[in-house]
Specification:
Strand content: over 45%
Number of helices: 1
Distance between the termini: 41 Å
Strand order of the largest sheet: 7-8-9-10
C-alpha cells in the first residue's frame, strides 16, 4: 500500500561524476574579425555546463531519527540498511552499524544495530535486530516486516521457529511466546530449542543437569518434562533423545522414551532417524525402535531434505538410497558410483558424475549440466546451478535447464534470500554486482559494489561510498554517505 506521497521531500538522484561539456563550434577562418577570433577559442559554454553530483536521499520521519524504533501502521515496509562504519576487523573488513528506513524513503532510526536478519515466521517475515551496547552486552528486538509492531529491545535472546517468536529475557526462567502478528500467546519453561510438528521443545540448565520440556505449540501447555543430554526437534510425532553419552532413543509428545541400541542418532525426520551403533556401523531406525535398515553400512547420511530418505554405503563405490517409509531403494543413475548426493527440495538430488558434470535428478528423469556446479534452491520452483564461468537456471515445473548466463551467482548470505525469485549476480570483469531473476532476466544491471535482496522487491545496495535502499528499477529510495571510523 502506497502512502505519504504528498509532502515527501526527496532529493533527486543524480549520476556521480558525469559532466556534460559542449564546446562551441569553431568559427570560419575566412575572415579575421575580432568576434570570429574570440569565438574560435576552445572555452566551454557555461550555460551548457552541467554538474551532476550525488546527494543524500531520504527524509526524517517527524523531523528526527530516533535511538529507538517506534512501530506504526503506515510504513508500508521497513528495511535495514548499512548506515555507518564504526571500526575495522583484523582482516581489514569494516564493522558496520545498520539503521532502519521505510519504502517511502523515511529514515526511522539512527545506526543502532550490529546485525539485522530477515526470518520467516508463519506466512510472513520478521526482522531480528541486535544492538551491541557500549558495555559489550546486547539487546534484541523483533519487528514486523511492515513495521506495525516491535518486540523489545530486550536484554536476552529472541528466536523464531515455525510461526512462533520466543523471547527469553536475561535471568528469566521462562520464554514468552508470541505469534507472527506480534501478539503474546503464552509461556514455556526455559529457553526454546525448537518448534516443529506442533511441539515446542525447551530446555533449562542447572547444576544437576538439563531439564527438557515438551509443550503444545497450539496452547503452550506443558505435556511432559524429562532430564536428558539433548532432545531434538519433533517430526512425525517423535524426536530423538540422548539420555547419556552412548544411550539414545526416541521420545513422543507424552514424554515416553523408546530406547534403542544406537550409540548416536541424527535428528528425526518423519518418525525415522539415521543411527550408528557402538561398532561404528550405520542404519535407519523407526520411532518404535524397529530397524528399517540394519547396522551394516560403513557410512550414512540423511539426503532427503525434508523427507526421510537416506544414502547408505556398503563400500566407497557402492551405495543405496533408501526411502524409509516405503522401505524401498531408489533407482539411481547408472553413473552414480558412490558419490554423495546433495539433497534438494521436492525430492530432487544432485551429484557430480565421473566426467565431472553435475547431474540433477528425481525419480522420473535427470538433467546433466556441463561442468562442476553447486546447486542452490532459489524461489519456489527453481534451482540455480552456479558454475565457474556463470550460472544456469533449472525450472522444476518445466523440467529443463536454461542457457548459461556469464555473470556469477552470489550465494545468499541470509537464509530467507533463497526464497525470493531474485538473486545477486556479479560481473566477472568488473566485480560489480546487480540483480537477476529466476526467469533469466537482469533486473538491475551490475553497477554496485554490493547489492542484496531485502524482500524480493527492494534491495540493500552500496556504491562509491554511498549506501542505502534501491527499488527494482535501481532508483535510490534511501541513500546516505557511508562515513565512519578511519
Amino acid at each position: 500500500m502506497k502512502k505519504r506521497v504528498a509532502g515527501m521531500a526527496v532529493i533527486s538522484a543524480l549520476v556521480c561524476g558525469m559532466i556534460a561539456i559542449q564546446a562551441p563550434q569553431l568559427a570560419s577562418q575566412q575572415t579575421g574579425s575580432a568576434a570570429e577570433t574570440a569565438a574560435a577559442k576552445l572555452e566551454p559554454d557555461t550555460e551548457k555546463l552541467t554538474y551532476e553530483i550525488e546527494q543524500p536521499i531520504g527524509t526524517l520521519r517527524m523531523g528526527v531519527k530516533l535511538d529507538l524504533f517506534t512501530p506504526a501502521t503506515d510504513y508500508g515496509r521497513i528495511f535495514p540498511y548499512t548506515a555507518k562504519i564504526i571500526g575495522w576487523k583484523q582482516d581489514g573488513t569494516p564493522v558496520y552499524r545498520y539503521a532502519l528506513a521505510d519504502e517511502a524513503g523515511e529514515l526511522l532510526t539512527e545506526p543502532l544495530y550490529s546485525a539485522a536478519e530477515r526470518q520467516p515466521c508463519g506466512e510472513t517475515f520478521v526482522w531480528l535486530l541486535t544492538e551491541r551496547m557500549a558495555d559489550g552486552s546486547t539487546r534484541s528486538s523483533c519487528a514486523a516486516q511492515d513495521g506495525s509492531w516491535v518486540l523489545g529491545p530486550f536484554a536476552g535472546s529472541i528466536t523464531v521457529e515455525d510461526d512462533c517468536i520466543f523471547v527469553h529475557r536475561s535471568g528469566s526462567t521462562v520464554s514468552t511466546v508470541y505469534r507472527a502478528d506480534g501478539r503474546i500467546f503464552g509461556q514455556v519453561n526455559g529457553t526454546a530449542a525448537s518448534c516443529s510438528d506442533g511441539i515446542i521443545v525447551s530446555r533449562a540448565d542447572s547444576d544437576s543437569g538439563t531439564m527438557w520440556y515438551i509443550s503444545s505449540a497450539d496452547t503452550t501447555q506443558q505435556l511432559a518434562a524429562l532430564q536428558a543430554v539433548q532432545v531434538g526437534a519433533f517430526s512425525g510425532g517423535s524426536a530423538t533423545v540422548q539420555l547419556s553419552e552412548t544411550t539414545w532413543g526416541f521420545v513422543d509428545a507424552s514424554g515416553k522414551v523408546t530406547k534403542t541400541a544406537a550409540s548416536w542418532m541424527d535428528e528425526t525426520c518423519g518418525g525415522y532417524a539415521l543411527a550408528k551403533d557402538a561398532a561404528g556401523h550405520f542404519g535407519v531406525l523407526r520411532a518404535d525402535g524397529e530397524e528399517i535398515a540394519a547396522f551394516t553400512y560403513g557410512k550414512g547420511v540423511h539426503c532427503g531434505d525434508e523427507l526421510p530418505v537416506y544414502q547408505l554405503w556398503q563400500s566407497e563405490q557402492e551405495c543405496i538410497v533408501l526411502n524409509a517409509p516405503r522401505g524401498q531403494k531408489l533407482r539411481l543413475p547408472d553413473d552414480l558410483h558412490g558419490q554423495q548426493l546433495t539433497a534438494l527440495p521436492d525430492s530432487y538430488f544432485a551429484y557430480t558424475n565421473t566426467e565431472g558434470n553435475v547431474v540433477v535428478f528425481d525419480d522420473l528423469e535427470h538433467v546433466e549440466l556441463k561442468g562442476e556446479a553447486a546447486i542452490y534452491p532459489q524461489g519456489s520452483t527453481h534451482f540455480i546451478a552456479a558454475l565457474a564461468d556463470g550460472y544456469q537456471i533449472f525450472n522444476k515445473d518445466e523440467r529443463k535447464v536454461g542457457k548459461l548466463h556469464h555473470s556469477l551467482y552470489a550465494v545468499p548470505q541470509q537464509q530467507t534470500a533463497d526464497q525470493d525469485d531474485v538473486f545477486t549476480i556479479t560481473d566477472p570483469d568488473t566485480g560489480r554486482q546487480g540483480i537477476a531473476d529466476v526467469h533469466g532476466h537482469v533486473v538491475i544491471k551490475p553497477l554496485y559494489d554490493s547489492i542484496v535482496s531485502a524482500d524480493g522487491t527492494y534491495f540493500a545496495a552500496m556504491r562509491g561510498g554511498w549506501s542505502g535502499i534501491v527499488d527494482a528499477d535501481g532508483t535510490w529510495i534511501v541513500r546516505t554517505a557511508l562515513n565512519g571510523a578511519e
